[in-house]
Amino acid sequence: MVSIGKQTDYAARIVLHLADAGRGRRVTARSVAQSRLIPPAFVRRIVSRLSAAGIVSAVRGSGGGITLARPAAAISLRDVVEAMEGPLSLNACVREPHACPFSERCPVRGAWCDANRALSEHLGGVRFDALARRLREGEKEETRSRMRKPRPR
Predict the structure, then answer these.
(1) Structure pTM?
(2) Do β-strands 65-68 and 56-59 pair in parallel, antiparallel, or remain unpaired?
(3) Is the pLDDT of residue 150 over 70?
(4) CA distance 16 to 14
(5) In the predicted model, is pLDDT for residue 123 greater than 90?
């Protein structure tokens, strides 16, 4: 099965939380862990990797916290995946054409390359400002839905 790791999923949750919090607003690792249901030890490890990739900025100590290192509109889901997993590659031959003796004339390699390119372009177009907006819209709809439901007597 082709899938992302749990830490990458957590990383996307962390970046979404920061994008939703607003530009420049620092939040604590503890609040992110509680809000996004991530074990606190993972938050610290993931923030370290996201920080090394220039996606988040972390300040330790009193008054510190985590914030986005650049605008949410400039951070893609591909950025987060690559920060956590490395370059996207559905098969070794996509990354290193000479890894397989058949790669130059292999039609399967071409299909892998096309799929890899499509996935990379799609994830590159998914921006965290848009994801945060969708999150807020979903929360508003959920609140409206609850308000419309008749209350039990």
Answers:
(1) 0.85
(2) antiparallel
(3) no
(4) 5
(5) yes
Q: pLDDT band at 152, cuts 50/70/90? A: low
Of 132, 57, 119, 45, whose CA–CA distance to 88 is shortest? 119
Phi, psi angle pair for 112, to nearest 5°:
-60, -45
Cβ-Cβ contacts under 8 Å for 97 (sequence gap 6 or more) = 103, 104, 109
Tokens of 34: 């509680």
- What's at 105, amino acid-wise? R
- What are 74's two structure tokens? 């400039």
Residues whose CB falls within 8 Å of the CB of residue 44, separated by 6 or more in sequence, listed in order: 29
pLDDT digits (tens, 9 = 90+) for 72-83: 999 999 999 999
Residues in CB range of 131: below 8 A, 6 or more apart: 16, 19, 77
Amino acid letter, residue 59: V
pLDDT digits (tens, 9 = 90+) for 89-102: 888 888 888 888 88
CA 82, CA 78: separation in Å to the nearest integer? 6
* Alpha-carbon distances, residue 24 vs 1, 12, 28 (angstroms): 38, 18, 13
Q: The tokens 């609140």 sit on which residue? A: 143
